């Protein structure tokens, strides 16, 4: 946490941490243990004091004070940053709030998750979900503080800023203003209709509008709009890489942190063409009895949200060749058409592949060599063009293939390298090569 917050504040210049330069392989290992049992987090007091009301372009916002690590933090939950994307706004770019809410916005309680294909008892999910959270140090200081803007993960199909693990109050105790944003997921965020009112990638447009809202309003919460760091994990990290590539995001942030994910894996097959995206959308329309109508897209807008969510792919792939993402990462770096005027920190974890094994191996506790081979072939169906024999030989070198545990470790390494480690490192490396030491670039691997 120290390295992320220091980077957000200063760009992190440390003699012990060499930058990822265009001619050197500099990956800093992080092995220091954590002791979460000795950390006292948010005090669970239902009678928190409200903090001062804050004027924003959305309206007057009322939050509350929470005590974290013996410090007071102003917490604002569920501030709307866009018009609810309902009815004809389903699949469309988010619309900014033109007229402030007349009543005080209650930001003391969590709001809706965005619609997603999971069934969690008590989960409040809705298309009316375009809100953000803010945590800022309770302080009378007039000095504006650096801002960290969080994008959650979940394969672009799952997740919410109201998950407990995304509570930003602890980070705010480091004298920073923390923001997290909901964005549309699955078909609601990425269905492509080849029309202005269904341009695809609207989940990214949600993030973009939230970032613009922060740029315009964060000074009211004590944040410095010229010191914004965007950061995210997994699909959130992929989103950060997309904002680095998108011409629409230029100038909205100063630094970026990518945690385990980037657009560059699978030989650019982590995106779909407009033709493929349109074909997939029309196939969904057919399955939902909308294909025979003159306006199949309007028909899809009337489908029950929970029913439509069942057709969300996991993972969901963004659309390439669009206004937001005009060219691939490879081409962007080759032609220098990306947002190069930022500092970048990127990193990975040791056992990235462990969470994906069950998707390819039925019984990981009794894994056999045949299971490994079958799993590699399954990976080839996703990561096209794998030389299955060479890959197997490489990852099974010096592995006792009669031991299920060792086979599992080997397959975990393979999946982690393919899905997260290699693309994240490759993106950071190509960024470093392209900026030619003009900006700071760091890379780490967490071994704990």
Automatic annotation (TrEMBL):
Q: Which UniProt keywords apply?
A: Glycoprotein, Hydrolase, Serine esterase
Gene Ontology molecular function terms on file:
acetylcholinesterase activity
Identification of the protein by name:
Carboxylic ester hydrolase
Please indicate which superkingdom the organism of origin belongs to.
Answer: Eukaryota
Origin organism is: Oppiella nova
Say which family it is in.
Answer: Belongs to the type-B carboxylesterase/lipase family.
What Gene Ontology terms describe where this protein resides (cellular component)?
A: extracellular space; plasma membrane
Q: Does the keyword Glycoprotein apply?
A: yes
């Amino acid at each position: 946490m120290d390295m992320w917050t220091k980077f957000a504040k200063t760009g992190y210049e440390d003699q012990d941490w060499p930058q990822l330069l265009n001619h050197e392989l500099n990956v800093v290992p992080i092995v220091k243990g954590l002791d979460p049992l000795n950390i006292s987090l948010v005090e669970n007091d239902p009678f928190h004091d409200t903090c001062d009301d804050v004027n924003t372009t959305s309206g007057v916002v009322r939050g509350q004070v929470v005590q974290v690590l013996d410090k007071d933090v102003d917490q604002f939950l569920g501030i709307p940053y866009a018009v609810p994307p309902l009815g004809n706004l389903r699949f469309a770019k988010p619309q900014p709030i033109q007229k402030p809410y007349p009543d005080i916005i209650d930001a003391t309680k969590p709001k809706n998750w965005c619609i997603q294909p999971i069934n969690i008892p008590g989960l409040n999910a809705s298309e009316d979900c375009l809100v953000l959270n803010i945590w800022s140090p309770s302080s009378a200081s007039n000095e504006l503080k650096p801002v960290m803007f969080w994008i959650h993960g979940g394969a672009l199909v799952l997740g919410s800023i109201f998950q407990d693990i995304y509570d930003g109050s602890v980070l705010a105790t480091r004298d920073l203003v923390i923001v997290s944003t909901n964005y549309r997921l699955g078909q609601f965020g990425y269905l492509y209709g080849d029309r202005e009112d269904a341009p695809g990638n609207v989940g990214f447009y949600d993030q973009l509008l939230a970032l613009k809202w922060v740029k315009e309003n964060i000074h009211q919460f004590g944040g410095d709009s010229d010191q914004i760091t965007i950061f995210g994990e997994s699909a959130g990290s992929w989103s950060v890489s997309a904002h680095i590539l998108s011409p629409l995001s230029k100038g909205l942030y100063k630094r970026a942190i990518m945690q385990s994910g980037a657009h560059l894996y699978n030989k650019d097959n982590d995106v779909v063409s407009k033709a493929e995206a349109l074909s997939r959308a029309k196939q969904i329309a057919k399955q939902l009895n909308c294909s025979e109508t003159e306006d199949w897209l309007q028909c899809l807008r009337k489908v029950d949200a929970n029913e439509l969510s069942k057709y969300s792919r996991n993972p969901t792939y963004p659309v390439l060749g669009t206004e937001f993402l005009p060219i691939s990462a490879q081409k962007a770096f080759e032609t220098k058409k990306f947002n190069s005027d930022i500092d970048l920190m990127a990193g990975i974890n040791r056992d990235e592949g462990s969470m994906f094994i069950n998707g390819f191996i039925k019984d990981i506790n009794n894994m056999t060599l045949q299971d490994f081979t079958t799993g590699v072939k399954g990976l080839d169906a996703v990561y096209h063009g794998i030389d299955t024999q060479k890959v197997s030989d490489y990852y099974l070198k010096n592995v006792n293939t009669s031991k299920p545990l060792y086979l599992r470790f080997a397959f975990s390494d393979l999946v982690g390298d393919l899905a997260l480690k290699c693309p994240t490192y490759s993106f950071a490396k190509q960024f470093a090569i392209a900026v030619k030491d003009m900006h700071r670039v760091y890379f780490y691997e967490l071994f704990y």
